[in-house]
What does this fold into?
Amino acid sequence: MHARSFPLPAFALPGVAAGLIGAVLIDAYLVIVFVFLTHTLSLAAFYEYVASGAIGAAAYTAPGSVLLGIAIHLIVAIAWGVGFAFVAARTPQVRAQPLVSGIAYGFVVMIVMQLVEVAANIYVQPTTFSLGNQLLAHIVFFGIPIAFIVDKRLDQPA
It folds into this structure.
């Protein structure tokens, strides 16, 4: 008996690639700003905060919570990348204006992630500085790169 194989949809690999690159870019920006420039977070606390959405306050003391935070962030970013690629593959208007689409997508991602933080009971009221950096991070370092990467990669054969 032969195992059935199901080909990946054309948007899957571009979405994964875009999500991974977006995750690295947004994390690099946020770590540079909040860990190295303003010293408002430690590198561990940055990822423990992400993990706290899944395991609560234990994330700040549990061994491995930094790795859990990194894994969660990568998985979420990949999901956002695949989601954008899914929409872009079916909506020519999204691909026609990747800059505009990326700006809009980054804004949507930021708002939804804020709502996720509220639902996970880890939301922290941002300062004006923090809010500005979150907007910049999600739009410039996540949404726009995802839009351009997906646009270019959807045209390439798998």
In short: The chain is about 75% helix and 0% strand.
